[in-house]
Amino acid sequence: MTEKHENVSGDSEIQAPAETREAGAKSLRKMALVLDCFTRLHPSLTVADLSERTGMPRTTVHRIVASLREVGMLDQDGRRQNYRLGLKMFHYGSSVIASLDTPRRAHPHIAKLQLVTGEIIHFHMFDGSQMVCVEREEMGTSRLTTLTTIEAAPTYCTSVGKAFLAFQDESLVRRIAAEEGLRSYTPKTITNLKALLEELALVRDRGYAIDDEENQLGVRCIGAPVRDAAGRVFASVSVSGPAERMPDARLTGLAPLVIQTAADISDALS
User: Fold this and answer.
1) In the beta sheet, which residues pair with residue 46?
2) Can you tell me the distance from the alpha carbon of 135 to that of 6, in angstroms, rounded to the nearest whole number?
3) Which of 63, 97, 111, 116 is 20 to 30 Å from 139 at the Cα level?
4) What domains lie within the chain, and their CATH numbers?
5) Bridge partners (DSSP) listed for residue 13
């Protein structure tokens, strides 16, 4: 059945038949299924891999991959039959971050925390599998993440990530552990799911998370969760510094400042 409506100029427009619109939506859903298969743990996949992961026939997947490659959303890995996300996806992600109002509203509080601590401040948001840096504040330098400076951090071995994960359903923690893997970045990285869940329970109790050189040797961080207007944790703010400047006593002293900054950002977003 074909539907008709008037556009803003008052002229009548003919819409595509309902069955045509549904077919288009179905095609988009299939493309999304294919794109969702690519992760940090599995950045390069074959048509066979994608067929197995999506449950779609190889002929269907091959057609979808060809279309995505044509518009730059997938790239072929040289002469191999592997595919990876294309630079067009990078462009889209950068455009999304650049258009966000959240970092701009959070900025005054992030800048204040940097002045008080003298250390590097990060503001990260969860993208579905990892924490993406949308603002980084250093001494004398304020930098919003742009097309060429997107930074991402694992969730399970960073203070921003653990501050976020601690307030999510356990099912999300288990999914990330299964899909992303609890890879060891340093000898101090938590790579056991049971130990990670215990660590997240501690984070919930005290209201902040510590990265004890778990992501990078020589760097310690403390982070706290940021909530949206509905009270859901969706981001985190952290203070990072060299391990020699961030002993346990200083981390304990920084905790109230980081928690208050996270609360101030949450209030600014509500």
Assistant:
1) 82
2) 43
3) 97
4) 4-85 (1.10.10.10), 92-269 (3.30.450.40)
5) 5
